[in-house]
Automatic annotation (TrEMBL):
Its EC number is 3.5.3.11. It comes from the Bacteria. Belongs to the arginase family. Agmatinase subfamily. Residues 1-22 are annotated as: Disordered. Coiled coil: none annotated. The lineage of its organism: Bacteria, Pseudomonadati, Pseudomonadota, Alphaproteobacteria, Rhodobacterales. SUPFAM superfamilies: Arginase/deacetylase. Keywords: Hydrolase, Metal-binding. PANTHER family: ARGINASE/AGMATINASE, GUANIDINO ACID HYDROLASE, MITOCHONDRIAL. It comes from Paracoccus fontiphilus. This is Agmatinase.
């Protein structure tokens, strides 16, 4: 296959046969599945299922992350021509990756959304596929973690974020993007002692035992030292990675509901994700991309690259 194949390839989201391999249809046209993968509800033989949860509810400042999955898919059309740079292998050639589409839910029945998410992700996991989820606000990660822990036990969490999301919240009926980790730890679905939050730069009096590697420390100590600390905390545990796009400085990702200055540069995030190669990745998500606040599309581009790196991380130990 080569670039001239754009003359005959189009709408690979529906027309491609083999789920593996690159796609060369024109980036500016065609159906915008993630990385031009085939849209499919059939999980048979699938290694990685990319799925969207276009849900936002009570974000702190700027709503709009319900549009994140759509924007991330569109941004990803720039990426499926070649293997992701620097990995030394092509995850799209190795793995059967599909776009599983978005989760259906009744926008007027907010209380039922967490249970729907848990069931949706549970079906992906039961089929033997690794989920890579496009959000949505950060509340979606709690039911995802419930689904994972129900099948794998309490997991180690690697969280990229500006906020620790461990503010006290003992009301089981609240759906809050800022307390997902508090509830996950209290429920026992996340092992706090084997978990780490990276890029934090807001005050929180109690992080419940999670190791905090704040943004200032990453800037001061560098990527390699940060990776060493992450690996020391996580060890050989099964790992779930959640990436709140506001882990990045607003200069690199202005399209988020809760921008905080002093964050990670995109090159730091890329190096940290790449440096996690070899972890026992169960799945991951990228959340809080809010495209209405970024007319350049840079935030969605960052989100698309994060999701691609998660796929590459999953495939690394399966080469």
């Amino acid at each position: 296959m080569a670039l001239e194949d754009a003359g005959k390839q189009v709408d690979q989201a529906f027309t491609r046969g083999d789920p593996r391999g690159p796609s060369f249809e024109n980036a500016f046209g065609g159906a915008t599945s993630f990385l031009r993968r085939r849209y499919s509800k059939d999980l048979s033989g699938v290694d990685v299922a990319v799925t969207g949860i276009p849900f936002d509810q009570a974000v702190t400042h700027r709503p709009g992350t319900r549009f994140g999955p759509r924007a991330i898919r569109e941004a990803s059309t720039l990426q499926p021509y070649d293997p992701p740079y620097g990995w030394g292998y092509d995850p799209l050639a190795l793995l059967s990756v599909i776009d599983h589409g978005d989760m259906a839910f009744d926008y007027a029945n907010v209380r039922e959304v967490p249970a729907r998410i848990e069931a949706h992700l549970g079906a992906i996991l039961d089929a033997g596929a690794a989920p890579v989820t496009l959000g949505g606000d950060h509340s979606i990660t709690l039911p995802i973690l419930r689904a994972v822990a129900a099948r794998r036990g309490p997991v180690a969490l690697i969280q990229f974020d500006a906020h620790s999301d461990t503010w006290v919240d003992d009301d089981p009926d609240r759906i809050d993007h800022g307390t997902f980790l508090y509830k996950a730890i209290r429920e026992g679905v996340v092992d706090a002692g084997a978990s780490v939050s990276i890029g934090i730069r807001t005050e929180n009096p109690d992080t419940l035992g999670v190791t905090i590697l704040d943004a200032a420390g990453v800037h001061r100590d560098g990527v390699e030292a940060t990776l060493g600390r992450i690996r020391a905390v996580v060890g050989s545990r099964p790992v779930y990675v959640t990436f709140d796009i506001d882990a990045l400085d607003p200069a690199f990702a202005p399209g988020t509901g809760t921008p905080v200055w002093g964050g990670l540069a995109s090159w730091q995030a890329a190096a940290l994700l790449r440096g996690l190669a070899g972890v026992d990745l169960i799945g991951g998500d990228v959340v809080e991309v809010s495209p209405p606040y970024d007319t350049t599309g840079a935030t969605a581009i960052a989100g698309a690259h994060v999701a691609t790196e998660l796929i590459a991380l999953y495939g690394w130990t399966r080469r």
